[in-house]
Every structure is written in structure tokens, then in C-alpha cells.
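Complex record, two chains
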Amino acid sequence: MQTPRSAKYLMNAWYVGAIATEVEGEAFFHRKILDISVMFYRKQDGSVVALHDRCPHRFAPLSLGKRVGDEVSCLYHALRFDADGQCTHNPHGTGHIPKAARVRSFPVQEQYGFIWIWMGDAPADRALLPDFSPLMEGHPNAIGHTYMAMKSNYELIIDNVMDLSHIDHVHGEIITTRGQLSPIVPTIQETARTISAQWAWKQTPPIGIFAPFLPEPKEEARHFFDITWSPPANIQLTVWALQGEGGGYDESIGQYDLHTCTPADEYHTHYFFVTRRNHVVEDGEFNAIKIKAMHDAFHDEDGPLIQAVQDEMGTTDFFALNPVLMSNDIAAVKVRKLLQKLIREEQGAEAIAEQRSAAE
Amino acid sequence: MSASARPDAQAEAQAPLADPNGSFEIEIASSGRIVEVAPDQSAVDALAAAGIEVPVSCEQGICGTCVTMVLAGEPDHRDMFLSAEDRAANDLFTPCCSRANSRRLVLDL
């Protein structure tokens, strides 16, 4: 029943498997996650199921099969499996169901408009999903989700968000800081499991995504980025602009976003994004334009560049290439080091557990 | 087994440095040799001038490529690479940009 374990990823963690709306109705949804084929579907009560997308008989993807109530019937020879992965029906011979006729099921939880999946062997720990509840506070027309399939290692995508200095160089007029960001060395805060970075600057006119909503769209505004990485691959990013004295996020024009990456394999990544804005919150048409504009910026500007970087590197081992790092890299470097440490600790703990079980 | 600092080096290393941007000494633990770091010079440059190459990349305390073990003395950390925990342990130093709070640092070189 063991699926192949990888040394490449943090396993005992919540990754986004799908946007909640990708898994709807009676359909089966397939996605490769941490080198494993996974199928998702909703039971008749609406709850989500995630199973290894592979029949244990002749390895047909079960997502090609048919639904029988809340069960899955394999297309190839009609073995049937329930939502826990247990075989419930064998139409062949005497109908005997071998003990090994099971598929692995993965714990899932639906939160923040995403379906999160736990791929590790340790018991799923719901508390390890960080609190992103501000995403759910506010008008339904002020939140948008999107997804991009990226041909790169996931850590390059994390680097790209942890190093926001790139935005003046990669992106166009809508989010330029007019050269203000690159000279700033961000303020860093570290905990045992998170890395945060903050940038603060002034620019005239204000950043393009916020300027039209500020009291004086052509005048100077104070701007702030506050980002926090948490394992395995979440970056919560808040960006806001203010004019006049005082004020915090609630008095600002701003948005609260989550970037989160799920490796399909070492060189392919599912890049998920959700944004919640605090202005023109009821405008559904603007909401659609906003999420499309952000999707297009990732897809047309970050995406091709990150994929070209990956192609040029030809490896996932960033530090082995001796990168000449600069002050803008500080947050990204700290995330890479902490992620490596957490993966090493997890593998150390698993090695000890295996030795114990071998000794028994 | 790592090298250890000689007893007289310990005393020298504990003497505080008056000017935070002033010159200080690096003692090379493997040879006992002393390298003076001038006020306008980085530790890496002073070591290179003495024929001791420490690998560097960013030269500004970001990447951690140059991290070196400290056996005695107290670094004045000017990098962003080492965490608060690393600094509290007082056994690592980034010679590309950091200096010393003590008159001498004994490095595991």
C-alpha cells in the first residue's frame, strides 16, 4: 500500500490539490501531485475524495472509470472501489476480493476556496494548514482564484515571490513601483516555520492597480508589501497603498493574496493564486477583469521567464550552480534554507521511525 | 575534531574593540598566523591579501557562501544571512561584510 516516497519534497504538509470549483458534479478530476497520480471527486454529500489514480490490478487510471454512487468502477475490468479506496466489487471468477485490492486514499480538507491534500505517511495534522481566514472575510465579488501549470521547479516560483524586486523589471505599468523597490533591503522576520519580509516605500503616481481608487490618483502614496512564507510552499502577500497621515490596511487600498505551489514533479508545478481586495468589493465585472489581469501577468510575464531560467539551469539544485546573490535575494535564500532544514528533519524522523519498526 | 584557540589567543580575543569600524585581528587557527583587517577593508579582502582565499558570492551577507567558524572572540554581525539563533551561538561569521566586537577573532581556517 505504500506509494513511492520522495526525498525531494516536504511530505507531511498540506498542498493545494485543486481549486474547489475544479472538482464539481459527478466528474472525476485528475492531477499529478508530488510524482503521484491523484484523482479527486465529490461524493453525493459534496465532500471531496482523493484517491491514488491507479487501479492496483493493471494500473489503469481510475479517473477514466465510471461512477457508481459514491464509488469508482475501473474502466478496464470493472473492479469497484469505495471512497476509502477499498475494493467492493470484483466481477471476475468467484468475485473474491483480494486483500491487496485497495488504493491509497489521501486526507483532504476544503478551505479558502481550495482543496488541500496531505500526501505524507504521517497522520494528517489539520493544524498545519496556516490561517488564511482574511481570504474569506468580505463580499463574494471581491475574491478570485486562478491556476497556472508551470514548467519549472516549485522553488523557483517561491523565489520569484519572495524577491519582489523583480516586479519593476518583469512587469508592466500596472504594478511598477517606478524603481523604488530594488534599492530596498526588506525587513526580515523569522520563526521556526515561517519567513516574513516587509518593504515600505513612497511613489508618485501610486502603483497602477491602486491609483484609480486612492483619493488623489496622481499624487504620492505610501506603499507596503508584507509577505510570509509557510511550509510547504505558501506565500501570503499583502500589498496596500495609503495617502495622508496614519492608517493601516483597513484604511488603505489594498489586497490580501495567497500564492501557493504544488509540485507535480521536480520540473512541473501547479501554481495556485487567490486574491481578496478591500475596494470596489461588490463589482463582479471588475472582479473578473482583476483576476484575469493578474493571471495574464503571471502567465505572460513571470511564467515564460521562470521557465526559461529552469531550462537554462537544467537542474533543481540552485545553490550547486553558485548563484551570485544580491540584497534582493535575502528572503528567498532564507526560505530555501528553512525548507531544506524542514525536509531534512522530516526525513531524519522517518529514518528513525523505520529503524524502530525494523527492530520490532 | 576542530582546531581550538590557544589560551593567550582567548585573552586577546576577549579584549573589546573600541571603534566598531576600526581595525581588528584575525588569527588563523591552523597556523597561528595573525592577519590585520584595516578599517576600510573587509575580512575577506584582508585574508585574500594574506594569501588565504575564502569563497564568496554576494559579498554583502546575503548568501552564506563565506560562512566561517569562530573559535574565539566576538563577531560584529553585519550580514542578513545568520539567524538570531546562529548569532546567539557566537560560533559563525560572514567575513565578506561582518567585523568584530573584540580585538581579535580566531577563525577555523
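Note: Chain B has three helices and seven strands.
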